[in-house]
């Protein structure tokens, strides 16, 4: 999890620490972590257990969390679901983007996903699956590691110079191999407009690029699937350029959506 805003900006007098911590708890839940106990939440947020208990109790009272029947676990409640639904309903641009994403997914028998950054992750906002023998267990709401994925690398590589420098420094924290992998991705992005992430142990290749809407406002879009269907040579020659072309087609759609939001 990303560092809590409450701990990173203590000097801001307008900043409500309790609210930030409550929202941080809600962010712990995603497509892969639908049910969590308070001990797990404390570990993911770094908050003290008593604080988690009090905040979780308040969120339950307001309907944002509910206790799972027959299990000592919490899950998102109706209030949180309604809030997320309202956010997605306001993004008509996604409705226009999905058919074009699906066409690319069908063409290359791959999965095409669109996401935005949230802390140290990219959160999927839309995902389309082609007819592929390899079905990845990811869906809307899934969190993808920012520094260990094609979609994360593309988002970071598309940033301004200062943001890139910070990203490179943070990518080097796990070790020199991670730093070199990200540096190679940045170099490829500068040259070709996309990045490639290969996972030979899983026989999966993924290509990704960014959709820079305006200023620093941007999305990232990826196309991934079996290495047999998406070999590196095909990505470099055909699939990567096709993804960049799709990103260029989607950019004015998202820009128009911003202006009329």
Automatic annotation (TrEMBL):
Keyword Transcription regulation: yes
InterPro entries: GAF-like_dom_sf, HTH_MetabolicPath_Reg, Tscrpt_reg_IclR_C, Tscrpt_reg_IclR_N, WH-like_DNA-bd_sf, WH_DNA-bd_sf
Start and end residues of each IclR-ED domain: 79-256
Domain HTH iclR-type residue range list: 16-78
Pfam families: HTH_IclR, IclR_C
Keywords from the UniProt entry: DNA-binding, Transcription, Transcription regulation
SMART domains for this protein: HTH_ICLR
PANTHER family reported for this sequence: HELIX-TURN-HELIX TRANSCRIPTIONAL REGULATOR, ICLR FAMILY, TRANSCRIPTIONAL REGULATORY PROTEIN
Name assigned to this protein: IclR family transcriptional regulator
Organism: Pigmentiphaga daeguensis
């Amino acid at each position: 999890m990303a560092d809590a805003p409450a701990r990173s900006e203590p000097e801001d007098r307008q900043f409500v620490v309790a609210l930030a911590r409550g929202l941080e708890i809600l962010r712990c839940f995603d497509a892969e972590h639908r049910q969590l106990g308070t001990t797990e939440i404390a570990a993911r947020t770094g908050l003290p257990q008593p604080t988690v208990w009090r905040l979780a109790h308040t969120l339950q009272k307001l309907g944002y969390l509910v206790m799972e029947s027959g299990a000592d676990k919490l899950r998102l409640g109706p209030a949180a679901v309604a809030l997320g639904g309202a956010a997605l309903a306001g993004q008509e641009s996604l409705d226009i983007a999905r058919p074009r994403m699906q066409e690319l997914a069908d063409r290359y028998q791959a999965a095409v996903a669109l996401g935005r950054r949230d802390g140290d992750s990219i959160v999927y906002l839309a995902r389309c699956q082609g007819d592929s023998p390899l079905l990845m267990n990811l869906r809307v709401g899934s969190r993808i590691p920012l520094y260990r994925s094609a979609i994360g690398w593309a988002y970071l590589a598309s940033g301004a110079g200062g943001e890139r420098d910070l990203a490179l420094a943070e990518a080097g924290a796990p070790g020199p191999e991670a730093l070199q992998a990200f540096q190679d991705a940045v170099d490829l992005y500068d040259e070709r407009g996309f990045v490639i992430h290969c996972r030979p142990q899983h026989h999966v290749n993924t290509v990704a690029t960014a959709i820079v809407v305006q200023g620093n406002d941007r999305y990232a879009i990826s196309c991934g699937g079996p290495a047999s269907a998406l070999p590196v040579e095909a990505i470099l020659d055909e699939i990567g350029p096709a993804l960049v072309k799709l990103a260029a087609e989607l950019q004015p759609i998202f820009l128009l959506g911003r202006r009329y939001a």
